TrEMBL record:
Annotated catalytic residues: C126, H234
NCBIfam families: asd_B (TIGR01296), PRK14874.1 (NF011456)
Function: Catalyzes the NADPH-dependent formation of L-aspartate-semialdehyde (L-ASA) by the reductive dephosphorylation of L-aspartyl-4-phosphate.
One Pfam family matching this protein: Semialdhyde_dh
UniProt binding sites for phosphate: R97
Annotated family: Belongs to the aspartate-semialdehyde dehydrogenase family.
GO MF term set: aspartate-semialdehyde dehydrogenase activity
Name this protein carries in UniProt: Aspartate-semialdehyde dehydrogenase
Record EC number: 1.2.1.11
Positions annotated to bind NADP(+): T9, G10, L11, V12, R37, S38, S156, G157, N307
Amino acid sequence: MKVAIVGATGLVGSVMLKVLEERNFPMDELLLVASARSIGKEINYKNKAIKVIGLQEAVNQKPNIALFSAGGSTSLEWAPKFAEVGTTVIDNSSAWRMDLDKKLVVPEINANQLTKNDKIIANPNCSTIQMVMALAPLHKKYKMKRVVVSTYQSVSGTGVKAVEQLENEIAGIKGEMAYPYPIAKNAIPHCDVFEETGYTKEEMKLVRETQKILDDNTIAVTATAVRIPTAGGHSESVNVEFENDFNLTEVRELLSATDGVVVQDNTDVNTYPMPMYANGKDDVFVGRIRRDMSQPNSLNMWIVSDNLRKGAATNTVQIAEYLVANSLV
Ligand SMILES: NC(=O)c1ccc[n+]([C@@H]2O[C@H](COP(=O)([O-])OP(=O)(O)OC[C@H]3O[C@@H](n4cnc5c(N)ncnc54)[C@H](OP(=O)(O)O)[C@@H]3O)[C@@H](O)[C@H]2O)c1
């Protein structure tokens, strides 16, 4: 088993390395790949220094699996080149997510769709993954009609440059800006680029990817995505209207019984999910579970998860684990 990490020097890539090591992913060789800027740089994996190589050199080595986190344009150009030599690509960018021929996978929900023929597999957007992890069991039981979500997203969701912008601003250092405005002491209602409708691409990912993962285009979703000055971990206020009524105890039981979801919900002792505690963990945390009293069959929740782990690296590695366990690579 030869595995390549494309984007190994980035935020997601470095968490992938950590997750592969923690989970002791079975492999004989690891290729670390980044842009021409990083070729020759050394990165440690299991106490061994590995030299970063370029994309063509990695293709030439025909890895069995390539975990991509190097941006959309790199994926568009290079994922097919890896697929052509027989590599199965699992891609973190938005390049392939809405392609009709590509599967968009959250292993706990729809990994069973995967076959040997899937050579490019898409990993959903971080804010979508954590939301559908909590929504999937509830949709199955009560059938969702409409979801209204507002996100509070950390700077690590934008990459290395944005984390540096926040750190510089906190330290009072003038540096490169990843956002059009300061992010420290601020909230920017603008994640990714604006579309013609006035929504951002990030907001529309929550709409389109949710429908694709849950395989139901009748679910109405509307979103507002906001960047806030937290270092790691996205939070979401989610309002869901179901076709059928629910019982709050049963909702808590359903969520607690879902693999990868942890309920943190006891307002008597101020227990609710927060990014500072979700940071570094693989689970999706759900709290503030309460009935929306303004209309029937409606629920409010607060969902928090580490965007670099379950939102990206962990979900990708879980897909790779599923492929290996089911002899699909
Ligand atoms: N951050 C998140 O929470 C998150 C969540 C889900 C998905 N994603 C997606 O994952 C991808 C990476 O995000 P990130 O946050 O890790 O960004 P990042 O910290 O900026 O890292 C980008 C990585 O891509 C590499 N890269 C850039 N251009 C390249 C090129 N032309 N050829 C080869 N490698 C290239 C960089 O290599 P150099 O160091 O050599 O420049 C670096 O390793 C993006 O597509 C992003 O949308 C991010």
